[in-house]
Amino acid sequence: MHALPHDHTGARIKRLRLERHLTQQALSDLSQVPYSTLTKTEQGVIAASPHVIAAVARALRVEVATVTGQPYVSELRADQLDVLIRPIREALDVYDLGVDPDITPRDRRLLADEAEGLLVAVRAGEIKRAAGEVAGLIQEVTTAAHSERSRESWQLLASTYRTAYDVASKLGYYDLAAIALARMDWAAERASDAVVGGMYRYMRALTYLREGEYRIGERLVALGLHTLEQADAGRQREAVTGQLHLGAAVMAGRSKDASQAEGHLREAERIATGTGEAVDVHWLAFGPTNVAVHRVSVLAELDEYGQAAEEGGRIRIPGSWPASRRSHHHAELARAQMWSGDLDGSFRNLQAARKAAPQQARYHQTVRETYAGLEAARRRLPESFLSYGSWLSA
Q1: What is the number of other CB atoms lying within 10 angstroms of the CB of residue 273?
Q2: Predicted model pTM
Q3: Cβ–Cβ under 8 Å, residues 95 and 80
Q4: Per 3-state DSSP, what percentage of the chain is helix, strand, and coil (rounded to 5)?
């Protein structure tokens, strides 16, 4: 009995391959994915890794979301989240229309408090709340920014666009996330805010990481680091700089460049020694813990799953860490444990990911791919495991 639909990522790869009249060997050659890995992925015997998904998407000339099946429309509709997406699109589309005569913005301090509250909500895993409130806030702050034309109001608008990006990317609407990022950069330029400009390039680099375009991602990291050199020295600049190195480390790991990945990790570790746990600096959760968590991700990307599982199991997450980051770490650790053969440990971490941030975990690609891998590896599925799959696909 399967708890998840049979239309898993491997099945979608097979369907896309057949639509293009390609044999498995031909797709293996085009994507540089080993033949045995590709065949087992198509059969659902092994889970599709991010590297395989990106490589196949590039070879087939489709979006990664087409391969993964995102956004998960049925689940979004069941959670009444799909209806919240169009208002966000509309709010992002009025960025250059100036003052809306039908909107009277509240005092900027009240708007700033609400914007900060939504950033916190996303990191607490409250995706539905953020999705429901961000569109109206963007429209109000857009009018305020065009009316005031102050550095602070443009910075505030950039913050609301960042929340729109967070919501869209976590729900699998990557086209919308790209639009939100472009708006964030537009507002950051008007605020002359080099730190936010560096953050924009970090987030944009992550979109290329997902698509497997590592060279473009590396160029964006380099540009982001150059942009940050123009910012005032201080903890904010250091934290964002360190986060850029962490993103670059994962990118290097996924492109199988262990030496470059280690170099970025070491630089991030050096910076984290000075910043300490800078969880609240732009809510990037940068610090020694995030360096350790990213080291686990890099090891997994380098196919060192046993070591990734071992090091990940030793990490103790501070209580100050946002639930969304905690959930993401549990998902990454579950993936490493699945590939290293610790199926029970992997499922425990999937459960921990759900407990920390259920709305996020339900739409998290790594959670779904890992669950599918565990399902394929187990002959007998306990009731708790089947229940988890029903929750994912309800």
Answers
A1: 12
A2: 0.91
A3: no
A4: 75, 0, 25
